[in-house]
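Honest question from a wet-lab person: if I give you the sequences of every part of a complex, can you actually get the arrangement of the whole thing, not just the pieces? Trying it with mine:
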Amino acid sequence: MTIIEIENLSAGYEGKVIIEKCNLSIQHDDFIGIIGPNGGGKTTFLKALMGLIPLRTGQIRVFDNEKQVPKILIGYLPQINHIDKKFPITVREVVLSGLIQTRNWLQLPSKNTESKLQHNLQLLGIESLQHKIIGELSGGQMQRAFLGRAIIASPKLLVLDEPSTFVDSNFESELYDILENLNKEMAIVMVNHDLGTISSRVKTIACVNRNFNYHPSNEVTTEMLEQYHCPMDIIAHGAVPHRILHNHN
Amino acid sequence: MDQIIGVFQYTFFQNAIIASVFTTIICGIIGTYIVTKRIVFITGGITHASFGGVGIAFYFGINPILGAAVFAVLSGLGIEYMSKYKDIREDSAIATLWSLGMALGIIFIFITPGYTPNLNSFLFGNILTVSYTDLYAMFAVVLIVVVFFALFWRLIMYIAFDEEFARSQNIPVQLFKYILVSLVALTIVINIRVVGIILVLSLMTIPPSVVNLFVKRFEYILLYSILVGLSGALFGLFMSYWLNIPSGASIIFALVIIFFLGKLLSIVLVKKKSTEGLSGNI
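Yes, you can. This is the full assembly:
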């Protein structure tokens, strides 16, 4: 079942085109990994997808139960480095802010929101941290809180921008287990620079490097690596499972 | 003692006390917003731009505070509108606006024929000359700010913390930012009478900075900033009366003293906590 249909999308900032010719249809159970070089337009694509920046061309249609609708609930986990870590806000409030559009305008607490919140905090293992200030958390704990904020409203689509930065490898595999579970209830679009993780955890892959190329499998091929323009990166990571790498010769 | 009670019999002093209360309520709330959202520099720009409005109003014989209000709100909305475009160097643009406002103010006051107004009262304020009209205007702003924040503090906090997330959730972020920057501008203008254009910024920034040394929650910083601001304002007001020094400067001075005392106390508390932690480990 299609939830989002992107047609001939191009977007950018101040007259500069960053990405163009994007065509993609997102199904309700998709788990799409987005790879591409730095500055290739991965984050720009996510922002255009969520309507955070105006489209230069093309259109995005949104569906709920096969019917076209103006919008659906989208959960968003932004890059963690854009967050002001000195901001005086508790973990509780950060996670609750994920309900911002499903609660009433005054954002008054209710029994329903409280039980949702506690369930969410339990799922992510951060109940004991809920009264802490966000800046007091470690990188991994902070990512948990932001993931909590992204999923508390049970969105139809979860958008993740580099979720494994500043995270230790223990939490990284736990994070992907959580995502695998969430994928049963929502579509996931994830930007990640780590090729190894992408190919083993996602269902399909899209390469973004100004152009947009969708590959309906999770196999990283030689052609894709050429588009990726970044073989150095793969060597540096050293953990690309070689079952997915065709021989370069 | 008689002297203390005696001074309360004067209307100008009663007005000054009421003005202090109003001022610190507005500044505590708006100050918390500008400090946590890190828009203190923008606020400085709006403050000084408003002086242009004072000058132009003088030239055309309009109420200078009204001129300042129009200028402040327009420059605030202008900055907010421009900040959507990433290719503008925001800090340089604000600095230009900052001095442009002052320059316009000086030029227009200079070419105003006849009587030259006393600039000091606009630059440094005088809480002891606050009139009933000023008090009514202040009360109106108090009412607007308090009601707006009482209703929407959570949304305001969420937007200030992560604007992009709020926008991804279809919250009318730009509308909120326009409203808030207008409230910031009104706060500045209403306080020109009290501490003046040059000093008003620290009336907003010092109380939340003091409170933030001890308290790390947005909603508590809002409330306690009002108390800290009020003690600074009253302390400064009495100092000004007893020592016969300008009230605006003496209020700011009192707030700075409170800030340093707070900083000292927080250092002592942190030290005490860490030594306790050490002995606990042993």
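Two things worth pointing out. Residues 213 and 263 of chain B are 7 Å apart (CA to CA). The mean pLDDT of chain B is 90.
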